[in-house]
Amino acid sequence: MLPPLPVIELVELEDLTPPAAPGGFLRLRRQRFRVRDPEGRLGDPFVYDRVERAALDAVVVAAHYRDATGTRHVYVRSALRPPVHLRPLASRPLPEKATLGALWELPAGLVEPDECSAEGLRRSAARELGEETGFVADAAELQGLGPATFPSAGVIGERHHFFHLEVRPAERGHPSEDGSVLERGALVVALPLPTLLAAVRAGDIEDGKTEIGLRRLAELP
Fold first, then answer.
1. Phi, then psi, of 124 in degrees rounded to 5
2. What's the CA gap between 150 and 167, in Å, rounded?
3. What is the pLDDT of residue 182?
4. Beta bridge pairs of residue 42
5. CB distance 163 to 60 below 8 Å
6. Cβ distance 111 to 57 under 8 Å?
7. 131: helix, strand or coil
8. What is the pLDDT of residue 211?
9. Are residues 35 and 80 in the same domain?
10. Can you give the residue range of the structural domain that contains 15?
11. Does residue 145 lie in a domain region?
């Protein structure tokens, strides 16, 4: 068992947030804090930057099926991620692939403000499944795939909420997409789960949420 976490309190001293740029997707929050430890002692003041956005959390969906041999196949799709593609040369401790920024991912997307509930998360997962793979599903059919995680806790308070659904390949339609330029023309493929896990180990699948979803799916009966 893990020991109890220490109770650490952030005491805000000052809000230093700069004016938001018009039309921006993300907002920088800059605040000055002190930390109060469990004994009530206050640490030195410090400034901390974090990122906010209107739709904070995201859903991650593993759509899968078993073939005639009982092997589970999982749908993944290609994605271009500009922050990865634009990694500064000076920040690269190791050489990068020529395809830097192009990733294989499980379907995923942001939770809209009106989907911030347990039932809303399933609606969000069903919506993203249709937009990114072409499968139409009732929200109630989506099953949880373990607890939510914080993918980048030092920068943003976003949680990833994981779901899975057993699908019938013949029922897959054309992905409706969400209108984003970055979603157009994505390649959607279904591959055996052991193959995808081997790709994780080889570094061919580099997306963290996808690795978590695939490993959790492998633990299912």
1. -65, -45
2. 28
3. 83
4. 36
5. yes
6. yes
7. helix
8. 98
9. no
10. 9-52
11. yes
pLDDT band at 105 (very low <50, low <70, confident <90, very high): very high
What are 195's two structure tokens?
A: 């193959």
- Measured in residues, the chain has a length of 221
Q: Tell me if 191 is assigned to some domain.
A: yes
Sequence-distant (≥ 6) Cβ neighbours of residue 198 within 8 angstroms? none
Q: Which two tokens stand for residue 66?
A: 């078993």
At residue 180, the pLDDT reads 84
pLDDT of res. 178: 82
- Six-digit token string for 147: 């607890």
8 Å CB contact between 183 and 177: yes
Q: What's the one-letter identity of residue 170? A: A
pLDDT of 179 > 80? The answer is no
Q: Considering the domain boundaries, does residue 3 fall inside one? A: no
Q: What is the pLDDT of residue 23?
A: 86
151 with 175, same domain?
yes
Judging by DSSP bridges, how do beta strands 160-166 and 58-66 pair with one another? parallel
Secondary structure of residue 51 in the 3-state scheme? strand
Give the residue from 210, 220, 124, 135 showing the smallest Cα distance to 169: 135
- Using CA atoms, how far residue 62 sits from 154, 161, 188, 190, in Å, is 26, 11, 13, 11
Residue 118 has pLDDT above 80, yes or no: yes
CB atoms within 10 A of CB 108: 22
The pTM (predicted TM-score) of the whole model is: 0.95
